[in-house]
């Protein structure tokens, strides 16, 4: 009897483990959205995606075909929403009642949610909304024609190889302690607000990403103790951020940090390019910082009305790779700024290991190379400067560069 009981326990345990394994692996649920008069006439469900969500269990995949004209809220994960044959979620029948925190796809506290290959469009509020500690990834997706493309609040998002365009407001907006990791090719363009907006203790990271925040009204905004960074990781080498051809400012910082770390990483291996904008290439105010202390970045601020504007105790430390040229006015304007430290690589005051030099240049601008006033501190050495450096009597210059 004891032997039979033991065998039964072993068999039940094996079945339980097998069932657990199947649950973790999950099943695939086909979601066919057919929004047509004929489909409705034949009795097609008006909310097939919501029906599938009610059936789904952790680890499942919803394989979506056609256009689903319904809003959804995901409250548990892991769960994958994957496109099949151009699957889309559209908000053309979605009346949000409010324009903020009312996503076409809302991920509320759920972790491990993946949106893969879908087009998410035409919401009167957010296309994708992450709230209450949600954690999700968006891959190979198109988010277009919403009021805000993607908003995350107190949540985490990894986005890769996706396009965010044609919003009535911002493209991607991360607020309130959220974190954002960008990889692959990400195009954020033709949005009528900021392409990328980070506000309120947000950490955003380029991890080997090529992020193009181009052709928006505003390019990148980093504010209220938020940071946009390339970290000291092998996978971060080669990261690129462009903010080009925007109607106003390319990159704007207000109590924000733009930083490229990378001690021991290849010199000038990451690119920050804010050129051809309708406003300054970069504006930093309220104690903001632009940092590349180890020469791992190349900064380009060309063909703007002004290359860089640094105000109200904002500061820079850029070693090597700075190019500020062909702007319609001054190259750099610093008013009431902190320390403006600009160098080339190699830098005798702070050696950066490098097989190749990475010079910094400020020149060929229609206005002076640098205008500084109101107590700004200039520390510009071993930089190729063409054009006058105009300082008022309150400016402190450690290199005697003022004229």
Describe the structure.
By secondary structure, the protein is mainly beta. It has a domain of 229 residues. Helices cover 9% and strands 43% of the residues. It has a 13-stranded parallel β-sheet. Strands 2-4-7-10-13-11-8-5 form an eight-stranded parallel beta barrel. The longest helix has 24 residues. The protein is elongated. The N and C termini lie far apart (100 Å). The N terminus is likely disordered.
Write the layout of secondary structure elements.
Elements: H1 2-25, E1 28-33, H2 37-41, H3 48-55, E2 61-68, E3 72-74, E4 79-83, E5 88-90, E6 105-108, E7 113-116, E8 119-121, E9 126-131, E10 135-139, E11 142-144, E12 148-153, E13 156-165, E14 172-175, E15 179-189, E16 194-199, E17 203-206, E18 210-214, E19 218-223, E20 227-230, E21 240-242, E22 251-254, E23 257-260, E24 270-273, E25 282-285, E26 289-292, E27 297-302, E28 308-311, E29 315-319, E30 322-325, E31 332-335, E32 339-343, E33 361-363, E34 370-373, E35 377-380, E36 384-385, E37 389-391, E38 396-397
Parallel strand pairs: 1-2, 2-4, 2-5, 3-6, 4-7, 5-8, 6-9, 7-10, 8-11, 9-12, 10-13, 11-13, 12-14, 13-15, 14-16, 15-17, 15-18, 16-19, 17-20, 18-21, 19-22, 20-23, 21-24, 22-25, 23-26, 24-27, 25-28, 26-29, 27-30, 28-31, 29-32, 30-33, 31-34, 32-35, 33-36, 34-37, 35-38
């Amino acid at each position: 009897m004891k032997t039979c009981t033991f065998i039964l326990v072993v068999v039940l345990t094996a079945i339980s483990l097998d069932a657990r394994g199947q649950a973790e692996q999950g099943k695939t649920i086909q979601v066919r959205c057919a929004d047509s008069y004929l489909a409705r006439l034949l009795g097609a469900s008006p909310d097939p995606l919501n029906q599938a969500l009610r059936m789904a269990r952790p680890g499942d995949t919803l394989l979506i075909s056609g256009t689903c004209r319904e809003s959804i809220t995901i409250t548990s994960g892991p769960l994958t929403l994957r496109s099949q044959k151009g699957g889309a979620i559209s908000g053309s029948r979605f009346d949000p009642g409010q324009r903020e925190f009312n996503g076409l796809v809302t991920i509320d506290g759920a972790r491990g949610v993946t949106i893969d290959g879908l087009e998410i469009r035409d919401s009167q509020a957010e296309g994708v909304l992450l709230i209450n500690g949600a954690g999700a990834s968006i891959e190979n997706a198109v988010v277009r024609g919403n009021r805000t493309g993607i908003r995350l609040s107190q949540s985490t998002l990894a986005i890769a190889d996706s396009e965010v365009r044609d919003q009535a407001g911002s493209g991607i907006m991360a607020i309130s302690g959220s974190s954002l990791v960008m990889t692959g090719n990400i195009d954020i363009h033709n949005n009528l607000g900021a392409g990328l907006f980070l506000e309120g203790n947000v950490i955003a990271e380029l991890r080997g990403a090529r992020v193009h925040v181009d052709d928006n009204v505003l390019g990148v905004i980093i504010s209220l103790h938020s940071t946009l960074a390339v970290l000291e990781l092998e996978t971060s080498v080669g990261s690129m951020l462009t903010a080009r051809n925007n109607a106003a400012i390319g990159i704007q910082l207000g109590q924000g940090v733009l930083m490229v770390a990378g001690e021991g990483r290849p010199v000038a291996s990451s690119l920050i390019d804010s050129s051809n904008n309708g406003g300054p290439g970069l504006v930093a105010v309220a104690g903001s910082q632009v940092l590349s202390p180890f020469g791992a970045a190349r900064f380009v601020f060309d063909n703007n009305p002004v290359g860089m504007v640094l105000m109200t105790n904002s500061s820079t430390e850029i070693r090597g790779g700075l190019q500020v040229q062909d702007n319609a006015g001054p190259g750099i304007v610093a008013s009431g700024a902190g320390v403006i430290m600009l160098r080339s690589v190699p830098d005798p005051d702070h050696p950066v290991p490098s097989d190749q030099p990475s010079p910094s240049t400020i020149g060929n601008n229609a206005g002076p190379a640098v205008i500084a006033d109101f107590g700004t501190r200039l520390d510009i050495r071993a930089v190729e400067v063409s054009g006058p450096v105009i300082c008022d009597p309150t400016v402190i210059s450690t290199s005697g560069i003022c004229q």
